[in-house]
What we know:
Elements: H1 4-17, H2 28-32, H3 37-41, H4 51-71, H5 76-81, H6 93-116, H7 119-122, H8 133-158
Helix pairs in contact: 1-6, 1-8, 4-6, 4-8
Amino acid sequence: MPGRRKDLLLDLMHVAADGEDGVWHASLLAALEGVDAARARWRPAPDRPSIWELVRHVTHWKRGLMRAWDEGELDTEAWSAQDWNGPAEEGGEEAWRESVDELARVTRGLATRLAAADERLLDTEVGGFGGGVARHAMQAATHDAYHAGQVRLLLRLQAGTHDARTLPTTGPGEDG
């Protein structure tokens, strides 16, 4: 059935990145709703990333993925060297909102590119990441889901629930 794989990948990207359709977990952008700059810059320890840095990290790699699709490959070692650096936590509410808005724009751009892809492009190997475009789209979605979980945990830790055994748990359909 032509297009079915692409539709599944688009749905996966939507659920992980910006879905609000009652999934079992919060999407990345939903996890960021209501987070202000102070909460975004908080760190659980000096050597651990803040929510703001996680947002910049995800945005950075989505940009890299689109560049790899455009150019046929990406020097992931050089791209990785640019990750996790820079003044992620400088600025106030406007700078924080811009970081979230940029993540949303890049996410929409990636989904738009995937929606326009034909089956041949989905199977096209892209150097640097290993695998084809379809595999990269799936990895982008799982990357979003992984970091959405980290955001939720950081927000819980900020609220003073430091013992993982006492963190609230959720079941299917609950967004705790």
